[in-house]
Amino acid sequence: MALSVPSGTRGAAGSRATAPTPGQVSAAPHRRGELPSVHNALICVGLPGLAISPGHGQLTGQGFDGFYQSGRRLVSRCQVRVAGREPVAVQGRLIGAGRARFTAVVRLPGAAGPDPELFVERLRSADGTERITLRSASDRTLRIPVEITLGTDLAFLGAVAAGSPGTELPAGVHGAGLRWTGDGGDAVVTASPPPDDALAATGLLGWQLELPPGGSRDIELRIRTDTPSRPAGPLRGGVLSPASAHGDDSRVETLMRTSLEDLRAMLVRDPGHPADIYPAAGVPWRCGFAPAEILWTARMALPLGTRLAAAALRQLGRSQLGGTGSGAGRIPGPLRDAGPHLPPSCTGVEATLLFPVLLAEARRWGLPEREVAELLPAAEHCLAWLRSAADEDGLLGEAGAGGLQRAETQAHAHRAAVLGAELLDECGRPGADRWREWAGRLRRGFRQTFWIEDRAGGRPAAARTPDGRPVPQLGAGAAHLLDTGLLGGGRFAEGLLDKVQTEQVARLLGGPAMDSGWGLRSLGAREQGHNPFGHRGGAVRVHETALAVAGLAAAGFEKEACSLLGGVLAAADAFGHRLPEMYAGVQRTDDSVPLPHPAACRPAAVSAAAGIHLLMSLAGVRPDVPAGMVALRPVSSAPLGAIQLTGLAVAGEPFSVRVSRLGLGMVEEAAAGLQLGM
């Protein structure tokens, strides 16, 4: 499955839709419009299948609710009536990444008292099945009519998001159910047991059921399409290790389980290369191919094995621009809104700089050398593009923004140079010394030109304009300055900032202007243009908060790291541990709860992976498989008490680690030959 929000409409992450990559499902024609709110929806995910439902469970044909397959809505209306009455909704909730349960009650005519005699439970799955169970609590035999009204417009999700889904199509009786055809597609609903009546004109299936005292009956609906398509189904078995977390704080177990379930549910295979998989960016609006987010997700999921990283790198390597022009070696990507103070940024540049970083770190986690050798030429092409695009000081500007230099882009470039140099060195390729020298030049230039001195200790500029003026606003992009990257021997690469500047950035990220109490604000509360609901103007973005936590912890600023970690864990409780890609950056108080962003994707690949990254930061696992060692640097304050992480993967083998209440780490399971390093 792959689809994008309508052209001209921005998703929660602000990405502009691009032409579908091979194997994508294109959205139908649409008009400009606002995305519907999804924060109250129950979204079952098992890509390429989706089921989007309101809390009461009845699909009414309105809004964006329905069963979707590969971006097309197969059923938009599925309403149940029992004895001529609509059941009274009691509860609707997710019971897994791909399933939701809805419970309702019915008070039947002729009942002796006010209590309901019949319970209706609907178990809905992303794979296009729904089981409806009727349970009697009566002491008499019940003979009741049950009606299910079905309908669809066969609309693409892009058209639904734009508010132009089309009209409901006429149905035809088809076997033990109904069938709709139109707009180059079809949908079939089959019922078991077969209905007693089927009225195509109204899309109605009917049964006369008899329930003995305390008895129950099931009706199962199966929704499918017979339209031929290229295989684009999920490939989940063995891609991610079966990790789990346990500890004194029960939230760690739930967050790890939910994050892993969501991440698995969002993996789809490339139809042109079925052996390769990638995570969709976010549900429901951004299920397409998003290069930067694919690489971020794979990088944060490295503790679950290197298979996802290898597939993502192969996928992105195939999209790399060839030739000898100025763009040769760059990975294409859409523009992304950068908030109120900067022009949109190119996610393709971000992905190009992430490519060699992910390859170098995946090698540390155990990516086989054969696969490293296959991917190394693409990484070298990324580095060659970087060298051609940077100025004489090593700083990287953006041609599309007149040469604007973003601070986080310099961080990405520096990390690519440092880790790329080590990768080239250890793989016997030339150029490592030149990249180390280039990285040193970039550090010196950045520290001199991007640091803004003030009475409070200074701050990094968010960017420098083409004429050299700093953009002074403080945002979550500063967290990338602390994300340095994993080197050999369990070391982290030197960052762009010196020691004093690093301490100041840690203080700023941990201060009340940036730490909302629920996580890191994307723009400081005191900055002009701050908006708690601005996706890069003040909202909390889970991915950036996770990077900040890991970077702060690695740099020794545990107090600030633990505060941000505690905020995200508290927010996760409120969101059922399915972290959205963002939520409002309002200040936390004793009686407040985090406010959802109405258009945020939930789940999103980077937020699911960020949940895993947050928990891994507590253990500080630093493998170096080529050197046959793994180091631990756990958070010494043990903010969540004792924690045990099992079912991880290092060198392709199971890996488990425990951190005690005293902050001491111990490897409990590891591949043969791995030694514990300091």
Give a verbal description of the structure.
With 678 residues, this protein is α+β, with helices and mostly antiparallel strands. It folds into two domains: 42-224, Beta-galactosidase, Chain A, domain 5, CATH 2.70.98.40; 289-603, Glycosyltransferase, CATH 1.50.10.10. Helices cover 26% and strands 25% of the residues. It contains twelve helices and 35 strands. The strands form ten sheets. An eight-stranded antiparallel beta sheet has the order 7-8-9-10-17-14-13-12. The chain has a five-stranded antiparallel beta sheet with strand order 3-6-11-16-15, with no helix packed on it. The radius of gyration is 26 Å and the shape is elongated. The two termini are 44 Å apart. Mean pLDDT is 91; it is low at 1-32.
Averaged pLDDT, please? Answer: 91
CATH architecture of the largest domain: Alpha/alpha barrel
> Structural class given helices, strands, pairing?
alpha+beta
Domains (count): 2
CATH class of the largest domain: Mainly Alpha
CA-to-CA gap between the ends? 44 Å
Number of strands: 35
Strand content: 25-35%
Percent range of helical residues: 25-40%
Q: CATH topology of the largest domain, which one?
A: Glycosyltransferase
For the biggest sheet, the summary is:
8 strands, antiparallel
The low-pLDDT segments are 1-32
Provide a count of the helices. Answer: 12
The multimeric state of the shown protein is single chain
Shape: elongated
* Radius of gyration over C-alpha positions, nearest whole angstrom: 26 Å
Identify the strand order in the major beta sheet: 7-8-9-10-17-14-13-12
